[in-house]
Amino acid sequence: MTAPLATRLTRLLGCRVPVIQTAMGWIATPQLVAAASEAGAFGFLAGAVMTPTQLDAAIAETRRRTGHRFGVNFHSFQPGAAQIVEIILANADHVGAVSFGRGPDASMIDRFRRAGIVCMPTVGALKHAQKMVALGCQAITAQGGEGGGHTGSVATTVLLPQILDAVDVPVAAAGGFADGRGLAAALAWGADGIAMGSRFMMTADSPVPAAVKAAYTGATTADILVTDRIDGIPQRMIRNPMLDRILAGGALGKWRRGLIAGLEMKRETGASWRTMIGAARAMTAHGEQPLSQAMLAAAAPMLLQRAVVEGDSRNGLMAAGQVAGRLDDLPSCADLVARIEAEARTRIDALMTRDAQPVREGAD
Questions:
Q1: Can you name the residues that pair with 194 across neighbouring β-strands?
Q2: Whole-structure pTM over 0.70, yes or no?
């Protein structure tokens, strides 16, 4: 029996398997996006942490690495956002979708749609899914609280049915997915596929340094927690010495970490303190955070880079989905997607066969 893995999502995005590789900052590089897309999934570039010049180069490199269409993630409030939109539109022949959290307005969404680019925001609440569809978005990624990085409080098992009942566009389930069993379960719920971050980060094709990958594969679910002490918004992280210092430190320690990492960010980007603090406030509760919290928020990207780019698993921050606590291997993207596809077909076929069996008299 052949399991039905072709969905509205595969038809909309043009991928073979209804699996999305999410846009993790500094991790979803051309290397990983191309590997995921070549494997049959749909990869998203992490444009939200790139300058327009960097994104232009990353799109060009991804195009060289794969002939498949791929997506780009960005934020409408990031520096150079208007230029980034134009770069994406100029590459509409290869960029098949855009993803975002705090999204663009209806007019910008309409520009993407007219260019043949699917708008697929990530949401963690029912009202946000409804708003995005009302603005014209053609698909939704519903991320439950199990997801990594910035995350909500509603579990995938509750959030996903809510959103599926409320919108009539393809929905990808995110938060807690890593294998074919999860894909089969998501399809059974009525979703059109799954989106995975931690699982793709923990692959041989991921650019993350080996020492940090070892920290991820060695982590258990007890080592992964949610905190709002970094930028005022709940984030799921792997517990390490840096996170422990943030959790234990008072106001003085917060200022110190913010200033040190802020200086690094200033050297890296050339941005002024005013620009960095303004960006931090835009990302945290509409600017209502105290200045010390905003400074730490401005520093947070540098702390994340310190881990996933520089390989410092002790003094950087490591975002992770809860599912990372049960993963202990680093397959290639090709092997991972093939494994997911085979397992999902097996699980769906088993359910269909089970349904076809006659019920024995007296059976429970």
A1: 19, 173
A2: yes
